[in-house]
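Structure ticket #2291
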Amino acid sequence: MNEKTELLEIFENKNAHRDYRIIHTAHEFTSVCPKTGHPDFATMTFEYIPEKFCVELKSLKLYLQSFRNDGIFYENVTNRIADDLIGMLQPRYFKLTANFTVRGGISSVIIVEHRAEGFKG
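Resolution: structure written out below.
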């Protein structure tokens, strides 16, 4: 666990007997370009099929806001967030789509997917 993941709270999935998808969209993610210091903006879409745990939304919001002043590349921040959530939730399936807004004429979409061992969905 690290300083950022300590912000995340999880709760018991009372419907673990069923595969169901949870989709959360955070429209106001920000971090900072490590090269230029300019702000980066993204819409983060989290999609997962929980096993034992779900993420509490206010804690997810605070966790995402903790990246606001971090100088980190798109690819690294997306994988960092995915790793932190996968590590805490241990979901059957997890997908994070980070849709970064246009800057310098280029937009970027970073997608990280994870399937638990044995999950076929």
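Closing remark: The chain is about 20% helix and 40% strand.
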